[in-house]
Amino acid sequence: MDVYKIRGGKPLQGTIKVSGAKNSAVALIPASILADSPVTIEGLPEISDVLTLQALLEDIGGKVNFGAGKMTIDPSEMVAMPLPNGNVKKLRASYYLMGAMLGRFKKAAIGLPGGCHLGPRPIDQHIKGFEALGAKVTNEHGAIYLRADELRGAKIYLDVVSVGATINIMLAAVRAKGRTIIENAAKEPEIIDVATLLSNMGANIKGAGTNVIRIEGVERLHGTKHTIIPDRIEAGTFMIMAAAAGDGVLIDNVIPFHVEALTAKLREMGVEVEEREEHIFIPKTRNLNAVDVKTLVYPGFPTDLQQPFSVLLTQANGTSVITDTIYSARFKQIDELRTMNAEGKVEGQSVILSGPTPLQAATVRASDLRAGAALVIAGLLAEGETEIQEIQHIERGYGSLIEKLRGIGADIRKENVPEKAKVRE
Ligand SMILES: CC(=O)N[C@H]1[C@@H](OP(=O)(O)OP(=O)(O)OC[C@H]2O[C@@H](n3ccc(=O)[nH]c3=O)[C@H](O)[C@@H]2O)O[C@H](CO)[C@@H](O)[C@@H]1O
Ligand SMILES: C=C(OP(=O)(O)O)C(=O)O
Q1: Does residue 159 line the site of ligand 1, with CB under 6 A?
Q2: Model ipTM over 0.95
Q3: Phi, psi (degrees; rounded to nearest 5) at 123
Q4: Catalytic-residue membership of 36
């Protein structure tokens, strides 16, 4: 199995570049299904979620070319092939195939999505939206079957603010007859990015980025060219790394406005954050104050940065509390961090962390994507050589991580070790 090995204690210095946003990429790629001619997306991250979606589009007859971050998808010969198993289970965002295929073919059969295990992650609001648009939806043996004679615009109030449901309903509605209104919509920057691509394909969408989105259905959508937004979660991960182990790190290709909640928390901790147009510079930090953090929907503090941030709090003076209001079980990093000498106690949806604690190297397991990112940061801080197992979770969302971190002075490598060395299931 592949593992990361990190020798901690090296000060990070220099420039690190952020890739295109995973959570945009995984929606932009399925959105291409709705076009009748090729769609080109530039700046895509080279992560396994993108490669899995490429394979899924090829399974339904798409012709896909991908290299150097640029993907061209010719959707003209795609068919409504059922995708009940296999690759759809490898990522969360395979749920976007439901909205996009329903929008184009008026039918789809897609397996229930995978993705990180963070507690229950139902898709009832997606289904409620599809049904409101006129689809009949059934769940048969772990796959969702959708079928509609025609899709008609509708007013849909989301009971839960959901990124996935907002985008999925947009995908299904852009070619429906008449007007769709999504109320209590999510406002994440990735939603604006997907709406921008769809609009450039000929869709009529207003209000993306606010909590009411209005869509006037159109008959056809055409190909276009689109450049993806930078990944605010990858940028945030690098900002936390810089605050924890940096000696002057410039984070390149970031929209500072997208990471404001993190910037505010870092400043509260005593970290200097210098915002420039498309970069953020973090000089060496000497003293970190403990802070409390609550994750919220955008523009609140993102749940996806909560796990990396927990490592920084082990280095702060005093007691900090993180409360994750989005997921019920997103603290699996804490057990691993404790084996590295951190002091942390999970109580329900909160974790109490005390510091500062010098971290010690250990063999640890990435239970999910951002737990993995947290362990990388811990490894960079720890004394000795840390081994991180189950790195396939990390590679779902961070492209070229080894190269990027070596570029700022980290001592990190990927190695293949025998399976028997695996810790904890
Ligand atoms: C591929 C992708 O973009 N993933 C992101 C997306 O996930 P995802 O789209 O799965 O997250 P949602 O915004 O839908 O989920 C937010 C909350 O709503 C609940 N919910 C969601 C849908 C639904 O039908 N019913 C329901 O109860 C979820 O269980 C969760 O508690 O947003 C999350 C919240 O910012 C991020 O952590 C993920 O990185
Ligand atoms: C939870 C995440 O991803 P996914 O929704 O793809 O599981 C994440 O990106 O942190």
Answers
A1: no
A2: yes
A3: -120, 30
A4: no
The packing angle between helices 124-132 and 96-105, to 10°, is: 10
Tokens matching residue 300: 């609140």
The widest CA-to-CA distance across the chain, in whole angstroms, is 63
* Residue 277: both structure tokens together: 């147009």
Q: Structure pTM?
A: 0.98
- Identify the structural domains of the chain with CATH numbers, from first to last: 2-19+230-421 (3.65.10.10), 22-227 (3.65.10.10)
Question: Which residue among the candidates 28, 31, 116, 262 is catalytic per the annotation?
Answer: 116
pLDDT at 425 over 60: no
The per-residue b/e assignment along 191-218, b for 16 or more CB within 10 angstroms, e otherwise, is: bebbbbbbbebbbebeebbeeebbbbbe
Tokens of 288: 């970190």
Q: Which ligand 2 atom is the nearest neighbour of the CA of 303?
A: 10
- Determine whether 325 is exposed, middle or buried from the number of CB atoms within 10 Å of its CB (0-12, 13-18, 19+): middle
Give residue-wise pLDDT tens across range 24-68. Answer: 999 999 999 999 999 999 999 999 999 999 999 999 999 999 999
Summarize pLDDT for 366-393 with one digit per residue, the tens. 999 999 999 999 999 999 999 999 999 9
Q: How many CA atoms lie within 13 A of 178 on its CB side?
A: 11
Q: Please, are residues 194 and 185 in contact by the beta-carbon 8 Å criterion?
A: no
**Portion of the chain with pLDDT greater than 70, in percent:** 99
pLDDT at 353: 98
Rounded to an integer, what distance in angstroms lies between the CA atom of residue 8 and that of residue 375?
11
Q: Is 303 in the pocket of ligand 1 (CB under 6 A)?
A: yes
Helix axes 22-31, 232-245, angle to 10 degrees: 170
pLDDT digits (tens, 9 = 90+) for 182-217: 999 999 999 999 999 999 999 999 999 999 999 999
Q: What is the residue with the minimal CA distance to atom 5 of ligand 1?
A: 23
